[in-house]
Amino acid sequence: MLNQVYRCGFQPFNQRLLPWVQCTAVSRSHRVQPSAIRHVRSWSNIPFITVPLSRTHGKSFAHRSELKHAKRIVVKLGSAVVTRGDECGLALGRLASIVEQVSVLQNQGREMMLVTSGAVAFGKQRLRHEILLSQSVRQALHSGQNQLKEMAIPVLEARACAAAGQSGLMALYEAMFTQYSICAAQILVTNLDFHDEQKRRNLNGTLHELLRMNIVPIINTNDAVVPPAEPNSDLQGVNVISVKDNDSLAARLAVEMKTDLLIVLSDVEGLFDSPPGSDDAKLIDIFYPGDQQSVTFGTKSRVGMGGMEAKVKAALWALQGGTSVVIANGTHPKVSGHVITDIVEGKKVGTFFSEVKPAGPTVEQQGEMARSGGRTLATLEPEQRAEIIHHLADLLTDQRDEILLANKKDMEEAEGRLAAPLLKRLSLSTSKLNSLAIGLRQIASSSQDSVGRVLRRTRIAKNLELEQVTVPIGVLLVIFESRPDCLPQVAALAIASGNGLLLKGGKEAAHSNRILHLLTQEALSIHGVKEAVQLVNTREEVEDLCRLDKMIDLIIPRGSSQLVRDIQKAAKGIPVMGHSEGICHMYVDSEASVDKATRLVRDSKCEYPAACNALETLLIHRDLLRTPLFDQIIDMLRVEQVKIHAGPKFASYLTFSPSEVKSLRTEYGDLELCIEVVDNVQEAIDHIHKYGSSHTDVIITENEKTAEFFLHHVDSACVFWNASTRFSDGYRFGLGAEVGISTSRIHARGPVGLEGLLTTKWLLRGQDHVVSDFSEHGSLKYLHENLPIPQRNTN
Fold this sequence. Notes:
The chain is of the alpha/beta class. The protein has three domains: 64-135 and 156-225 and 242-353, 3-Layer(aba) Sandwich (Carbamate kinase); 363-570, Aldehyde Dehydrogenase, Chain A, domain 1; 585-738, Aldehyde Dehydrogenase, Chain A, domain 2, CATH 3.40.309. Strands 1-2-5-6-4-3-7-9-10-8 form a ten-stranded mixed beta sheet, sandwiched between helices. Helix 17 links the parallel strand 13 and strand 14.
């Protein structure tokens, strides 16, 4: 019997139950006890996450990131979530996905409760079917075709539908939860059950007993007997809320049961400041008590008793009672399969209700400020933008002591937590600040002819002239790790190009980033554009920032290859400029100089091995093996303590080889290097194309013909001859600084400086010109004459 699933109907515990209860149980040998969960399970596409769940109920969570600590959770499924679009029958696929997510959270050790609609829709489908089947063929024939059509859509009373649908709805939930070894119990309640103190205590005791037994209670209003909603003293205080619909029921249960989180799933993304679908409607990320005046509510959903206004009232009531609330979309096919787990993981889904207002602006507000400030910045004269950058460069040297003191705090806090290469990136010094200041002044000088530069002029027809001019991209989001020196560089490039800027730095550089951002805003203030550059200090996850496609025009990640890959994956509708890997190659040709080869390999690998432009794979011409040149390179690498990984062909030439490389497509970011053997320059090129990342690749040779062949055939962003890979850098290219290195094939490639942050627009100046004038019988003809481009004074 222990290996068989069984169902049982049972009497109320201790004969105390007044609401009706039905339970489905499964063998305890199949149950997953929370204490046994120590790893990710594979039976579901939603992984288990082990988190500390102990929490004292009393105050709601202040931030989304804290929701992962929620232990007791109520999930309310609105009618629009549970029912099909035709309002007759259930959305089975959607329900199955919701049950899976609830089961995953239950098996993590959480206490899950469902408040569900759907009985009326399920009963409507069932009763319609029964009515049609109950008609005899004779009655159907004699009633006539018109009457038969009317019979196909009978008008049914909602209470009868609820009565007919409750058992079927519960049977469906039972079948679904059984697939995940979860036991479920149904409880039907009415408003009277909460107003009668004895019944309320009985209900509370029943729910606690079910949760103690690891059973998921499925609660619904008893729509078969519930009286019509009546006006009463609703929402007058924490202890008073009438159960008029499942929104108020979920809120009442959440407070009664001292739950940590109430998730309300509906057919809209969350709470909007005006009815969804209206022109200016904006999704509200976080809603605070007292914000109701800023919201215009629309009509209620296509099914169900309540609208968004009812959900907000219920949510605020629950929040006042100490339960956190999120209202989200449970019907969207792209998110419904993980919406509940995403909310619990703290992701930016739907509208989060919080009693704690942040000290500063939200990231959405920062995006709007960056957009507005960037547009003003773009209208400044080039000399004014250059003046801002010069002032920032001066501040970096004048406020050196304050900057280094803040950086010292970051270094002390990061000691022992960050690897040595990351600590080196985090560190600031006087020489670094001086180099930064020099780079910023270069940007200021080169920015004189950036925004508004005419690229092309064409006379379309007489008195109809077209210009193509450079303009800012819009709002940039730059995400960077352990690189505080990145902040003033990127800020200067954004200022020079007239772009608004959102900066998201790593928490390990929080002190350094804060003072550098303050100095940037101080420089911007001299021309009244302080808000054009914003530092995101909220607990915003990178993945959530990547979803702000209405506010951000370009994302530029600066950090590890994993960070770049994560951002490329998370970005929805926003282009990402960057490279996920920096697998740089250097090919030592048979005609290479011994001294040049050793010097170039050392600089490329050992000068700064954590950089994305550091050498990762050394390709050696086969004829150089066992020659003085090869021996000298190996001796140098040994002295520099570089760990060597042998490629398959290189290993085959050696009796005792170094460890064979696991993958020829590896970015080490440390004093490690892969060495492989090739037969000629073409094989080197083929290897680079197969295993490289199109970042930076180098040939070392004295043969100009071989070098030019390499330069023109290697398809990478940067291709060098007899030069270190480390030259692949915006500052060294004379760009002043860079926002990153792009391996993309459109817009910008290689080190991206000022030019890469500009796009173009077309300006057409005419005098009452219409297209019909240029038709076959029109009075005008196209000229399409190229006009000289005016030279701007950049002195």
